[in-house]
Specification:
The chain has five helices and 21 strands. The chain is globular.
Length: about 375
């Protein structure tokens, strides 16, 4: 019997209810990622043997809900049946692949297009299942036409987010369930500067330290199909200590679709803001106390509702005294959550695990290969 503090149900492609999960489901694990939003969930169903496959079919929706409404929604991508002794065990994996269904063979975003306008166009053109959106005003526009070729929605969204805001802050996109409208919603947000969650150090277990492996104080962007490049750097960090590291450490980013030097420079500045941090922060953490996490209003946040894409303030964690640390010492940025419904344990992964832009993209691509 599953020990869920919430419930779930399966709906067919017409939105018609087909099956409660309830106590028949076991071993449920749900994940969220940044960028991306609701990522996947896995569980198994035990029942009397039947070969009635259409009762749980592709691409049915799996929705989890509590007393606040739907908080996790994904679409079934894999089902495996094991039959024996007049019993059937169904292993199900549901993944949020809506951003991988359609793509542009070729698409031109015009000069002067705001980043959020381009993101809205991607949703309209390539993500018809996502019927709502909430997009931050980025203050940044394209300074030249941007031609996208042979990319699905996920890759296009990431390419636009990498351009950042007018303050050179990285952008993140998410697909979350909009419980009120019973729909999917696309969110575009700037990387937060302050904590959205709070936890006492006594209620968290994990690995603590600092990460300099991905550190760089210079970023070179190769653009225009490899014909051009532009570099941005932080000369103060290249100088002597305690502020600087007394060396030049360079990262290369290849963005062949970009054609304009200003856009390439904007992308480089947004990337440099991430790379130049020597992070004094935990690598990962485990939280099991159901009362451990609160929000900015000091309200309890159920562990299953904790999402990637926010910072969590760890009260009582003392930062390392590194001269170049300006970010994430006590408030690491959550890049992945994993909640085990049977054990009630929440696992968190932080930004230093996926410090590079290309690393985040590579991981998302890897997860789509199911």
């Amino acid at each position: 019997m599953a020990r869920w503090p919430f419930d779930g149900a399966i709906y067919d492609w017409n939105g018609t209810f087909r099956n409660f999960l309830g106590s028949q489901a076991e071993g449920l694990i749900l994940r969220t990622v940044a960028p991306g939003g609701c990522w996947d969930l896995e569980f198994s169903l035990q029942r009397k043997a039947t070969l009635n496959y259409p009762d749980i079919d592709y691409p049915f929706d799996v929705r989890l809900y509590d007393n606040q409404g739907v908080f996790h929604r994904t679409r079934m991508e894999r089902r495996t049946d094991e039959l024996g002794d007049n019993a059937e065990q169904i292993q199900i994996r549901a993944i949020n692949t809506i951003a991988d269904y359609q793509g542009y063979a070729s698409k031109v975003f015009a000069l002067g297009t705001a980043i959020e306008t381009a993101v809205s166009t991607v949703r309209t053109d390539l993500m018809p299942k996502v019927t709502a959106e909430s997009l931050v005003a980025t203050g940044r526009t394209l300074t030249a036409a941007y031609t996208i070729k042979a990319k699905k929605a996920r890759a296009v969204l990431q390419a636009l987010c990498d351009l950042g805001t007018s303050a050179d802050v990285l952008l993140y996109w998410y697909v979350w369930p909009d419980g009120a409208a019973d729909a999917y919603q696309l969110l575009l947000e700037a990387k937060p500067a302050t904590a959205g969650y709070f936890v006492d150090i006594r209620n968290i277990r994990g690995r603590f330290g600092w990460d300099g492996e991905q550190y760089a104080n210079k970023v070179t962007v190769i653009y225009n199909a490899g014909a051009s490049n532009v570099s941005v750097q932080d000369t103060a960090l290249q100088g002597t200590g305690p502020t600087g590291t007394n060396d030049i450490r360079e990262k290369f980013l290849e963005v062949p679709d970009l054609a304009n030097s200003t856009d390439a420079t904007n992308l480089g500045n947004s990337a440099l803001l991430v790379y130049k941090l020597l992070r004094g922060m935990p690598e990962n953490a485990i939280i099991s106390a159901p009362w451990a996490i609160t929000d900015t209003n000091r309200q309890l946040v159920p562990l299953w509702r904790v999402r990637a894409g926010k910072r969590i303030a760890i009260r009582g964690l003392q930062p390392l005294r590194l001269g170049t640390v300006t970010d994430g010492r006590n408030t690491p940025f959550i890049t992945q959550t994993e909640y085990n419904a049977d054990t009630g344990v929440l696992s968190l992964h932080f930004e230093n695990i996926e410090a590079t832009l290309e690393g985040m993209i590579a991981k998302l691509k890897q997860r789509t290969e199911i």
